[in-house]
Amino acid sequence: MEQQPVISVHHLTKYYGSALGVTDINFTVNRGEIFGFLGPNGAGKTSTIRMLLDLLRPSSGKITLFGCDIYTHSVEIRRRCGYLPGNFSAYGNMTGADFLRFAASMRKADSRLQADLIDRFQVLPDNLAQKVKHLSHGTLQKLGIIQAFFHQPELLILDEPTIGLDPLMQEELYRLLLENQRAGRTIFFSSHNLPEVEKVCQRIAIIRQGALVALETLAGLKKKKLKRLRFTLSHAVPDLEMPEAELVSRESLDYEYVVGGDIQMLLQRLSTLPIEDLTFPEPDLEEVFMAYYRKEA
Amino acid sequence: MAYFHFIWKSHRSFLLFSMVFVSLFQFLILKIVTTFDYSAVIKFMLQQLPDDVQSMLGEGFLSLLTVNGAAAFGLNHPLVLVILSIGAIMIPSRHIAGEAETGTLELVLSFPVKRTRLLLNLYLSGVVFLFLTIFFAVCASLLSIHIFHQLTTALAVKMALIGCNLWLLTVFIMSLTTLISSFEKEGNRVGIRAAGIMLVFYLLYYLSTLWKALEFTRPFNIFTYYQPEKLMSGQRSFLLNGGVLSVLILLCLFAGMIQFNHRDIPG
Question: Which H/E stretch holds residue A11?
């Protein structure tokens, strides 16, 4: 029997007045999967996430979580979810401990797991005694992570969860995600950071300007992922043509290409050129998106 | 209960201040105003004033000089109305629109709680706090009358009715703020709008007592349904006041609930 997806989104569209938020989004997320949702700021990631939790109401389309309609079974579904909002904020006048108590009273939190998470993310007793408004952004983010995980939800929806965390804590979070995946939980991981999504996710959706431009496995995405190539020649070469690469800019003897295919042929060609300087800068996400557009076109 | 506790903790300084201030104000006004019998002197002075000035001072001014009048006046003093209104406006504006603005509403609504239930918890917390503030104020009035004058059952009943009427007025202000909040995502803007609407009603009511041309506005003015001096003297029915205010409260609350259920968070 085919397994029912945990998240199923069909033709999701959201308008804010006349402005378009997201348009005709379709994807499914399977049980036990870490699903990356990638896109630049303002692409529609948070809007999509808010619709998954019935915080925003779609203009059209349908969302089912655990096989139930999000609108009609909202409370039941949210009981089975953990959520870390982007730009997580808590009540400023509460202490860290008060906030966790408050959140635990709204959910059936596992106090042992909560203590374990406090320990893992190195939230100090002093931090817990401080008012939330006086906490650093990183500590606040840790509280957000704890409240998202401490009731062992079947589905975790995390919106930019590593923002504000130092590299050690980021690694701790990745470990926690993988442990939860091994325990059979599903994770919806939204980010604008391609390398971190590559680290933990099996499948990745890319959203840009409100539309889903790619839905790939990690292997598929890597295959398609383009690189930038920048080099300077010592003297001009007539009819410079590069295999599997597309010229982006040229200034005198400085050339910039986007490389999309077999790198072997390209290296062979480069070895024949009078190159003075050569770099392969990491493309930013926007370039990956642009490359996607070019490729699809 | 967790939410009730949370609201209390968020506003306890102001709520405690308003409870103490309003109660103390009632206690002292009944002690001071009625300690000396200077009504004859004041009446004489008033008669020397032009008619317009006499009318500006209001019908209830002379009655203020009696125990009943002072008891009613205390619960209608602008300072008392302002403090109670701040409490009534602050809770919904801060916890609905204000939290939509800061992002905490998004977090709370990701918990397994119905929007309606969250709104009602918040609303009922406000209703209870307003009730307690006014309850203590009425108790302080009765205590003052009992200590410095003579408390009768009839007076106690009238004070209780005035207290209920004031409570309904403040609950209406809170309901209206809840309705405005359910559309908005900025707490301050909601507070300014709700306070502005109340101020316009108050000024219009005051002007309608001065100019006959504005008398037609009275049935549509919320302050027509809270006149403690008239309740005390039996010129006005509590049932009428309470009935009108209750209907308006329910209308605002239901409209606010429907809108809150359908709105986008943060909006």
Answer: strand A7-16
- Does the pLDDT at position B59 exceed 60? no
Same domain, A213 and A240: no
Partner B contacted by A142 (CB < 8 A): no
| CB pairs < 8 Å spanning A and B | 60
Q: Which residue, among A83, A89, A91, would best test binding to B if mutated, counting the most B CBs under 10 Å from its CB?
A: A91
Tens-place pLDDT, residues A88-112: 999 999 999 999 999 999 888 888 9
Report how far residue B80's alpha carbon sits from residue B68's, in angstroms, rounded to the nearest whole number. Answer: 17
Quick check: B221 contacting A, CB < 8 Å?
no
- Mark whether A230 and A137 lie in a shared domain: no
Residues A96, A233 within the same domain: no
Provide the pairing of β-strand A68-69 with A227-233.
Answer: unpaired
Alpha carbon distance B245, A93 (integer Å): 34
* Domain-terminating residue out of A179, A195, A223: A223
Peptide bond connecting A283 to the previous residue in cis, omega within 30 degrees of 0: no
Give the count of domains, chain A: 2
Query: How many other C-beta atoms lie within 10 A of the C-beta of residue A43?
Result: 24
Transcribe A226-277 into DSSP letters.
-EEEEEEESS--TT---TTEEEEEEETTEEEEEE-S-HHHHHHHHHTS-EEE
pLDDT tier for residue A297 given thresholds of 50, 70 and 90: very low
Contact A90 B262 (CB under 8 A): no
Query: Are A253 and A190 contained in the same domain?
Result: no
Determine, for residues B113 and A75 on separate chains, whether the beta-carbon distance falls below 8 Å: yes
As a dihedral over the C-alpha atoms of residue A40, residue A42, residue A46, residue A48, rounded to 10 degrees, the angle is -90
ipTM of this complex: 0.81
Q: Give the number of domains in chain B.
A: 1
A93/B109 Cβ within 8 A = no
Test the B interface: residue of A53, A105, A106, A154 with most B CBs within 10 Å: A106
A133 — contact with chain B (CB < 8 Å)?
no
Q: Which of B2, B9, B110 sits opposite A83 (nearest CB)?
A: B110
Q: How many Cβ atoms are within 10 Å of A286's Cβ, its own excluded? A: 11
Nearest CB among A56, A85, A106 relative to B113 is that of A106
The pLDDT confidence band at residue B226, using thresholds 50, 70 and 90, is: very high
Same domain, A273 and A138: no
Kindly state whether residues A277 and A137 are assigned to the same domain: no
